[in-house]
Design goal:
This protein is α+β, with helices and mostly antiparallel strands. Helix content is 41%, strand content 14%. Helix 1 runs antiparallel to helix 2 (41-53) and helix 3 crosses helix 5.
């Protein structure tokens, strides 16, 4: 739309969840399979490795599009920044990057701001601290990215459950809408589905159907009978 020759690449992996202490992709793959019940994450980590390789011989300045209101894009930015050394970088900050359409994104072209040495050091130090903590989740708190435990979203999920049977997908959607209304996009349906399955297996919810499929599973709060 803007008739620009820029090449666009993205991180693929979602560093808002899973182990980050090392760059061993196999550790992340095994974690996603165990905690989230998703197989095939090796393809995601492979694409992220290709993404990083694109910067090895790069001479041109890079413009990074960042949203501090979206955990996945913010975490992905910090992870990327920790790997690219001192290449010149400019930043475009967009509040809701993942749902911004092409017409809206075009309005941000030309508004990039050079990343200062001080800000680069701050972001890199933040990621190093998150790596040391190596928590199961990263979430947004204000404008900061902080560590969180795997149960972080459980109370929100349970607040949308009722004593009537509901599709798992309906509870997940209600929780995502809650994020949307708050203007902070904390996580996606992959993690929320996995947490609902764990809550059901722990007896916090009753269930019927296929716990691994949001549209084939129904949940409700345990009855008092």
């Amino acid at each position: 739309m803007a008739a620009r020759p820029d090449e666009v690449v993205c991180t693929f992996d979602n560093f808002s969840f899973g182990p980050i202490a090392t760059d061993d992709a196999n550790i992340r793959v095994r974690w996603v399979e165990k905690e989230l019940g998703y197989t095939g994450w090796d393809d995601v980590t492979y694409k992220s490795a290709i993404f990083l390789a694109a910067f090895e011989a790069l001479e041109s300045p890079v413009t990074a599009w960042v949203s501090r209101q979206e955990t996945m894009t913010y975490a992905g930015f910090l992870w990327w920044l920790s790997h690219v050394g001192d290449i010149p970088i400019s930043i475009v900050e967009v509040p809701d990057l993942s749902i911004t359409n092409a017409e809206s994104m075009a309005k941000f072209l030309g508004k990039a701001v050079p990343l200062s040495t001080k800000d680069r050091a701050f972001h890199q130090a933040r990621w190093e601290q998150l790596k040391i903590e190596d928590a199961p989740l990263r979430v947004i708190n204000g404008e900061d990215l902080v560590s969180a435990q795997i149960e972080y979203f459980d109370s929100s999920l349970l607040s949308h459950a009722t004593f009537e049977w509901q599709k798992m997908a309906r509870i997940v959607t209600a929780t995502l809408v809650e994020f949307y209304d708050a203007g902070v996009y904390q996580t996606g349906d992959l993690l929320l589905r996995a947490r609902l399955a764990d809550l059901a297996e722990a007896g916090k919810l009753e269930w019927q159907g296929d716990l691994s499929h949001m549209l084939r599973c129904e949940l409700r709060l345990p009855s008092s009978e």
